[in-house]
Structure formats: C-alpha cells, structure tokens
Specification:
The chain has 19 helices and twelve strands. The protein is of the alpha/beta class. The radius of gyration is 21 Å and the shape is globular.
Length: about 400
Amino acid sequence: MATTDQDDQLVTPWEVTAASQKGVDYDKLIKKFGSTKIEDSLIERIARLTGKPAHHLMRRGIIFSHRDVGLILDAYEKGKPFFLYTGRGPSSEAMHLGHLIPFVFTKYLQDVFDVPLVIQMTDDEKFLWKDMSVEEARRLASENAKDIIAFGFDKEKTFIFSDMDYIGSSPDFYKTILRVEKCVTVNQVKGIFGFNDSDCIGKISFPAIQAAPSFSCSFPQIFSGKKDIACLIPCAIDQDPYFRMTRDVAPRLGYPKPALLHSTFLPALQGAMTKMSASEASTSIYLTDSADDIRDKINKYAYSGGQSTVEEHRRMGGNVDVDVSYQYLTFFLEDDEKLAKIEKDYSSGAMLTGDLKKELISVVQQVVAEHQQRRQQVTEQMVQEFMTPRKLKYSY
C-alpha cells in the first residue's frame, strides 16, 4: 500500500518524501511494509556461502531489508538454482547516481552466486505515466540498456528486455501476465497503488507486467519451461508494493514466492527529505555529467550538516546524519577506514564542509568517469545481443 505515516513520510513507486532532514525512517518502513531487517547473521551467511566478502552496501545498511532471503540461501546450500530479477523504468536519456545502487549490488550478487539475471526495461510503464510517445519510451529503453551493460554484466548470464518488445515476441511471458491479472481485482490494485477512477486502464494492468518476470515460466528460453526456479529481486524499497502483490498471487498460481533485497534511497543533493530524481536536474548527478558539472553541483547544491561559521563548526562539529556529502560517501567510498576517519573528523569539527565536499567530488568524479569510459565501449550490436531472447549459459 502507498505509505504515508503520521510524520508525513510518503513512499510509493512514484514519490518519496520525508518530513525529517534525516530522510526516510527505514525502521518504520520495515514495520509498515512487513519486511525483515537484515541482521549481521544474514550478511555473514552470504559471505560464508559465497566465500567472498560481503558487499559494502550490505555492511553499511544501505541494503537494509529483505523478504525470504534465508529460503534462497537454504536452496542454494542444497544446490538448487535461483535467478535474479531487477529492472529500470527508462524515463530519461541519462541515468543518475541513484540508479547505480541496485545495479552495482545486482552485479555483485550475479558474480558471487553465478546465477542468471533478467533485467526488465519498463518502457510501457513510462509511456503510460509520462508525457512521451511509445517510440521515445522504447528508444530510452535502449539508451538506458547501454548504461546497464556498462556495469559489466556477463552477456552469457544476462537477458535485458523491453516490455514492448518481449510481450510481443513471447507467448509464455504474456500468458504469465494474464494469469497474474486474473488473480488481482481492480479494488486490490487501487488499494495497493492508490490508483483512482481517472487513471488510464493501462496503469491498472501494469503491475501484473512487473510481477511476471518473478516467475521462471516467463523465460522458457532460459529455464526450459520450468515453473519452480526461485527468484531473488534486488530493488529499492519503493518497488516493494509490486512484489507484495506478486508474493500474494504466487501460491495461487503454483509458483514460488519471489524473495527480495531492499535498498535505501540515494538522497537528492538538496537533502534526504526526497530521493534523487532523473526528472529534476538540480537534485541529480547524471552518469553523463562532466567532472566540472559534478564539482559545481556538489559545491552549489549538496546540503550541508555543518555549522553556520567556521568557528562554530570547529567547536560543535558537523552532523553526518543530515549531511548529503557524507551520506553519498557511505554509498560510493568503499574504504571503510577512510570513511570512519571522515566521519570522526567531520563530527568533531576537525574537517570543514568544504573539505568534505572535496572528498566527495573526487570520489564521484572517478565513479562517473570510469562508467563513461565503459559505456563508450558499448555498441548497438552489444545492446541487440543482450536484448535478444536466447538460452543463457545455464542448463535446466
């Protein structure tokens, strides 16, 4: 259900706002959504099973909540297969830093577990919700696919698909959508997503399309028609309503419930009261931004937790809980020791806001420059290969 708390916290697939400068209260969201907080024991179990260190996004609580991941690990221990499913709504030419988070983490999961991955490009959703043509939505799907390929996903293990294309070419995918649609009433969809009588009918039926890739029978070319392969979905917490609906439907269709791993939001530059948005240029650092753009945006817009004068800051220190530059470093600076020192120095007043912003500028410029170099290597032919329905390297 679209979530609004007494303190004006709103989290839906389309809007995220919080009244507090600290941003969304994720513990409250866990209670509201009924998910499970990720404990150290789960992180340690993943590291033990894979023989690889836990990802820093998990260690730092950025991947903070889950549904049934223990069951996925139980199956993995017994040698049973599972697959990964994530997605992207292509609403803009360029993806932004916030979009990195689920894909960076999904890449880690694919590498350490060695499993197939399907990535849904919801170009149909963006056509229905945004003021754009069908053709433009489909074009943006291919443009965004280049960014996704640039994260380094393995073509032998990864299928990226446009809804517009795949629904038309895969009877099995469409049949799965129909089965889900038949299980969910209009009243239920209104209750979960907040749709009203003036919304177009395309919106009412879309949640079934996002649900369908959770089930292996949607991809007969990958899973040889098997219906019982478990699915793990890494996504931002605002996508959870889709998959609560999916998990409710799954047993009625005889399919396994998908498991989920939820990430927090990368705050807007102006502060954690809202998330970074591709549609709002001043809130976002895009993966196409130049080094100068990145420097100027962080210096101009990044909300500071510092004091109003240098003297006050030296005496009282900065507040890392609301400082956007520090928050961003928790996402993108992988060095735990360096991050701990920055937190200590900024909180004590030894480090000033300008110095903290310099640290962030350096880290983000490197992340974006490396991504841009990899994206330049992505050709139209590579996009076509990733987006062609085919068997992957696994046998079922």
